[in-house]
C-alpha cells in the first residue's frame, strides 16, 4: 500500500496546523509550500489530473463542466481542459468582470484564449452570464486547501463564494488541490464560505467529502 501523500504536508502530521487561527496564516504557509514544489512534480501532478478527467469524461459527455485556467502554482493545466472538451464535454471558464459573481464563457481550445482586463487568460467566446454556473453538473474549483467538512481555503478574493450559490443543487462542487492540501484539521471558516461536496487530487482522484448530502451528483 502506498504511503498517504498527505503525510508530507508542511504542518507535519497536521497537529502543528492547529496553531494557525487565521486564513491569512494558512494562506502564507500553504502558498510557500506550493512555491517550493519542483516544476517536474507539478507537471506530473497535472498529467495525473488530466488522466483522471479523461476517465471521467465518458460519464460527462454532453454535460457542462465549470473549470478554471490554472494561475501560477494552481493544480491543473490546459491539457486537463482539453481532455474534457475533446470528449464532448462543454467546458466553461470564469471571466472576472467586477467584484460580483463570476461571468462564464465556453472554452473552445487554447487558440481561443485571450488576456482579460486583469491580465488573466479567459475565453474570447461570448459571455454567458453569471447564471451559466447553474448549468454545470461538475464544478472544478481552485483552492489552496480543503478540509474533511468541505471548508475551502481560496486566495481571498471571494469570487467563488459569491458565485457558487448559483450552482445547481445536485452539482458536484470539487475543490482541486494537491493531495497534502486535503487536510484533516478544520480550516477557519466564515458564515459566507461555500462548502465543497468533493475533492479532486492527483493521487486520490475525485472523492466525495463526508458532509456531502444525498443530492450530490453521482460523479463523486
TrEMBL record:
One of its GO terms (molecular function) is metal ion binding. The keyword Kinase does not apply. Its cofactor is Mg(2+). InterPro entries: FTHF_cligase, FTHF_cligase-like_sf, NagB/RpiA_transferase-like. GO terms for biological process: folic acid-containing compound biosynthetic process; tetrahydrofolate interconversion. It is an enzyme of class 6 (ligase). It catalyses: (6S)-5-formyl-5,6,7,8-tetrahydrofolate + ATP = (6R)-5,10-methenyltetrahydrofolate + ADP + phosphate. Keywords: ATP-binding, Ligase, Magnesium, Metal-binding, Nucleotide-binding. Its EC number is 6.3.3.2. Gene3D superfamilies: NagB/RpiA/CoA transferase-like (3.40.50.10420). Belongs to the 5-formyltetrahydrofolate cyclo-ligase family. This is 5-formyltetrahydrofolate cyclo-ligase. It comes from Actinoalloteichus hoggarensis.
Amino acid at each position: 500500500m502506498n504511503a498517504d501523500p498527505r503525510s508530507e504536508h508542511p504542518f507535519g502530521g497536521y497537529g502543528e496546523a492547529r496553531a494557525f487561527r487565521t486564513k491569512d496564516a494558512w494562506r502564507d504557509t500553504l502558498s510557500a509550500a506550493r512555491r517550493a514544489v519542483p516544476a517536474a512534480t507539478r507537471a506530473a501532478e497535472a498529467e495525473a489530473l488530466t488522466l483522471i478527467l479523461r476517465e471521467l469524461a465518458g460519464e460527462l459527455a454532453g454535460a457542462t463542466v465549470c473549470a478554471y485556467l490554472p494561475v501560477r502554482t494552481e493544480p491543473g493545466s490546459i491539457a486537463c481542459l482539453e481532455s474534457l472538451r475533446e470528449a464532448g464535454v462543454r467546458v466553461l471558464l470564469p471571466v472576472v468582470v467586477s467584484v460580483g459573481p463570476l461571468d462564464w464563457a465556453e472554452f473552445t481550445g487554447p487558440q481561443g484564449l485571450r488576456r482579460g482586463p486583469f491580465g488573466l487568460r479567459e475565453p474570447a467566446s461570448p459571455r454567458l452570464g453569471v447564471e451559466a454556473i447553474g448549468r454545470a453538473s461538475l464544478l472544478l474549483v481552485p483552492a489552496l486547501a480543503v478540509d474533511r467538512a468541505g471548508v475551502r481555503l481560496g486566495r481571498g478574493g471571494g469570487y467563488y463564494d459569491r458565485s457558487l450559490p448559483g450552482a445547481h443543487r445536485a452539482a458536484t462542487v470539487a475543490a482541486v488541490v494537491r493531495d497534502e492540501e486535503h487536510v484533516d484539521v478544520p480550516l477557519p471558516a466564515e458564515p459566507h464560505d461555500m462548502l465543497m461536496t468533493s475533492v479532486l487530487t492527483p493521487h486520490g482522484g475525485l472523492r466525495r467529502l463526508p458532509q456531502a448530502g444525498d443530492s450530490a451528483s453521482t460523479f463523486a
